[in-house]
Fold this sequence. Notes:
Elements: E1 3-6, H1 11-14, E2 21-24, H2 29-41, H3 43-57, H4 62-84, H5 96-101
Parallel strand pairs: 1-2
Amino acid sequence: xxVLAPARGGPxxxxxxxxxxxxxxxxxxxxxxxxxxxxxxDPARLATMRLRARASVLGRSWEHTGDELIAYARDRWSQxxxxxxxxxxxxxxxxxxxxxxxxxx
Length: 105
């Protein structure tokens, strides 16, 4: 299925309108209803968006998502250190929960 998601949070980075799905303004179910209707009325568009939605998530996993979040946090941490104009603590290590999941202390 194509992705139909509220236009906030994570979907903003993952959903590419008219490619793998559509975003709808949260709290406006009428827009979501119209998007569902548009897909139901256009089988060719539905098929194309369905294939693109699947392709957009094939390489994704919880591990991949965790790695992206860690990279984002490190990037933000280094920006914080740069904008503060002083050295602070080093960038955080891999979170403890992640190490525990990998069987490490």
